[in-house]
Automatic annotation (TrEMBL):
Record's protein name: Plastocyanin-like domain-containing protein
Domain Plastocyanin-like: 126-240
Gene3D superfamilies: Cupredoxins - blue copper proteins
Superkingdom of origin: Eukaryota
Source organism: Aspergillus calidoustus
Family membership noted in the UniProt record: Belongs to the multicopper oxidase family.
Length: 288
């Protein structure tokens, strides 16, 4: 981390992805962040002092200081509620067969009518749609299921919110709630505040958020073929305010048939094509 009270000068940055599990894409790059009051911004990036600390394959050399994400505290004052959560949900992340991933027992399927339309939607009462009261503290504890075909890690992303990353670890979360866990596992003082967090391979991840943004928000893995294979749930909050939000946004009546060639028709068709493509890619991966 670079404090913003440093002297003007050139700060060399270098990044590299490190292949892990199914995520085998290798990227590497360099940059210079220049804080210079003289107006001279001509610098030679080939002279890279960061090469002393990081190899091009992403591994750190001996003596380098590695970033520990759990220590990335948010701005002062942005801390989670420290009382017990109003709602606690446990999700077992599971690859149930070659082309199916689930967050909570059932694979997510796109509804015909968006869930934000309430009980008009065929997804409103789906097993993958979960409802929470407004202005409540919600804890979500995710575990990689022991019986999953693949026990890799997952970048889990929540729409509509940022959340506090309370903790993560290997194995299964051994408590019935966050409140039961010791401070050595759960950080309620200054946890990271993110919209994406990594669920470790064969491990657990605990997050906390407040239901203060009415809507139907999807929680999903950010690996593309996992989400199109069903690895998502929709978290609904502020149910009594959804109708007003729809009217405010001038959304069309979902019961009115779409005209051929309209934008929504293309969107739905493209989304279903992605799901079909993801299924084919999964089959190719499984049967090379």
């Amino acid at each position: 981390m670079i404090e913003l009270d440093q002297s003007p000068g050139n700060y060399y940055l270098r990044f590299a992805t490190y292949p892990n599990g199914d995520m085998q894409q290798v990227l590497e790059g360099q940059a210079i962040v220049s804080y210079d009051t003289t107006g001279n911004d001509t610098q030679d990036i080939s002279v890279d002092p960061m090469s002393v600390w990081m190899l091009t394959n992403g591994s750190a050399t001996q003596g380098a200081n590695e970033l520990v994400e759990s220590r990335l505290a948010p701005f002062e004052g942005n801390r989670p509620p420290t009382t017990a959560a109003d709602v606690t949900r446990f999700f077992n992340i599971n690859q149930t067969d070659i082309v199916t991933w689930v967050v909570d027992q059932y694979p997510y399927a796109e509804p015909t009518i968006p869930i934000i339309y309430g009980n008009m939607s065929d997804g409103w009462n789906a097993n993958t749609t979960l409802h929470s009261p407004t202005n409540s503290t919600v804890d979500i504890v995710m575990n990689v299921a022991n019986g999953s075909l693949d026990t890799m890690g997952h970048p889990m992303h929540l729409h509509g919110h940022k959340f506090w990353v309370l903790g993560s670890g290997s194995g299964s979360f051994p408590y019935q709630s966050v409140a039961e866990a010791p401070p050595s596992l759960i950080n309620l003082d200054n946890p990271p505040y993110r919209d994406t967090a990594n669920l470790p391979p064969s491990g657990w991840l605990a997050i906390r958020y407040i239901t203060d943004n009415p809507g139907a928000w999807i929680l999903h893995c950010h690996i593309q073929w996992h989400i199109v294979s069903g690895m998502a749930v929709v978290l609904v909050e502020g149910e009594d305010q959804l109708d007003a939000l729809i009217r405010q946004g001038n959304s069309p009546d979902p019961t009115t048939p779409l005209k051929s060639g309209t934008a929504p028709s293309y969107i739905f068709n493209f989304s279903r094509s992605l799901i079909a493509l993801g299924t084919m890619l999964n089959a190719l991966v499984a049967f090379p």
